[in-house]
Amino acid sequence: MAQQLLEVKDLKTQFFTRDGVVRAVDGVSFELEAGETLGLVGESGCGKSVTALSLMRLIPQPPGRIVQGSIIFDGQDVLKMDDDEVRGIRGNNIAMIFQDPMTSLNPVLTISRQISEALELHLKMDKSEARKRTVELLDLVGIPGAKKRLDDYPHQFSGGMRQRVMIAMALSCNPKLILADEPTTALDVTIQAQILDLLKNLAREFRTAFILITHDLGVVAGMTQRIHVMYGGKIVEKADTTELFANPKMPYTWGLLRSIPRLDEKRKGKLLPIEGLPPDLIAPPPGCRFEPRCQYRRDVCKEKEPELRHIPNAKPDHEARCWGTQEGGWLVDTDWHREIGDTRVIEEIKQEVAQVTLEGTAPGAGTPPPPPSPVN
Amino acid sequence: MQPADSTVFARKQRSLWRDALWRLFRNRAAVMGMVVIALAALVAITAQVVAPYDPVQQNTPKQLMEPIWTRFFGSRFTDSAYLLGSDELGRDILTRLMYGSRVSLVVGIVPVAMVFIIGATIGMLSGYVGGWVDNVLMRFTDVVYAFPDLLFVIIIVATLRNTDLGLVMDGLLLIFVALAIVSWVGLARLIRGQVLSLKHREFIEAARAMGASPVRIMLKHLFPNILAPVIVSIAFAVPGAMLTEATLSFLGIGVRPPTPTWGAMINEGFVVFSTTPWPVLLPAFCISIVLLACTFVGDGLRDALDPRMKI
Question: Residues 19-78, chain B: which have Cβ within 8 Å of A?
Answer without folding.
Answer: none
